[in-house]
Amino acid sequence: MKIERKYMAHYLNATFAADDGTASYVRLGKDLEEYSPELSANVEKKTNILGNETVSINSYQKQGEVSPYYAEKGDPLFEKLQSIIDNDLVLDDLKTDIVEVKLWDAQSGDAFPAVQEECYIEVSSYGGDTTGYQIPFNVHYTGVKTKGTFNPTTKTFTAEA
């Protein structure tokens, strides 16, 4: 049985590391037709003198693009993105986390298997056309992951023991 796309959920934490507050997860996707983190593997290929080729994949540079993102008053993610623009934030002021939740596999009650990953947010532009104020951005994953569960009702991540 195929799994519908809506069951792979991505929740971005609108409370960044520098904010020192309680996590405030916002589900990506309201205006998105697609969100697919690209893995961009670092591949090394070598051919020896016998003509044999070896392939080595030694790392991934994972990144996702959120475009369009329409600004909505009162949305904590919009407020953070606007702060990035207004204050020219850089370095660790752009650090947060994203949680990928497998909504097709309930563990118990409202707990679903999830992986939380540290990431940095890069605002790529702002403005847009007559459809509304847009702030498209990129999510740069660091590879620092924590397995656990996520409750979509309370929007809380619980790390594995």
Short description:
With 161 residues, the chain is mainly beta. The chain is built from 1 helix and 9 strands, in the order E-E-E-E-E-H-E-E-E-E.
Overview of the structural elements:
With 161 residues, the chain is mainly beta. The protein has a single domain, classed as Elongation Factor Tu (Ef-tu), domain 3 (Beta Barrel), CATH 2.40.30. It has one helix spanning 76-87; strands at 8-13, 25-27, 41-47, 53-60, 63-66, 95-102, 112-123, 137-151, 156-159. The strands form two sheets. Strands 1, 2, 5, 6, 7, 8 and 9 form a seven-stranded antiparallel beta sheet that branches. A two-stranded antiparallel sheet has the order 3-4. The longest helix has 12 residues, at 76-87. The model has no long low-confidence stretch (mean pLDDT 93).
How can the largest sheet be summarized? 7 strands, antiparallel
End-to-end C-alpha gap? 32 Å
Number of domains: 1
What integer value in Å does the Rg equal?
18 Å
Low-pLDDT sequence parts:
none
Write down the overall geometry.
globular
Helix content: under 10%
Q: How many helices in DSSP terms?
A: 1
Mean pLDDT: 93
| CATH C-level class | Mainly Beta
Q: How many strand elements?
A: 9
If you consult CATH, what is the topology? Answer: Elongation Factor Tu (Ef-tu), domain 3
Indicate the structural class: mainly beta
Series of H and E elements: EEEEEHEEEE
CATH architecture descriptor text: Beta Barrel
